[in-house]
Amino acid sequence: MRKDSDIQSMMTDVTEQLGPINVLVNNAGSLLHRMKAVELDEATWSEINLNLTSAALCSHAPWFHP
User: Fold this and answer.
1) pTM (global) more than 0.85
2) Which of 27, 29, 26 is nearest to 61 (CA)?
């Protein structure tokens, strides 16, 4: 998920179905293969960006900051 609105929608669905969120484990993401920085292409960078963005947005969601 790359948009804050998608994260908020997901968090709303989860809390409505399961109750308050007490712990967040940012464990989602695709496994990227090892490569030299000069070998990075746009598609690989996009995968890295998705992993970073989704983890950051979930961590900043108001459900984890009383």
Assistant:
1) no
2) 26
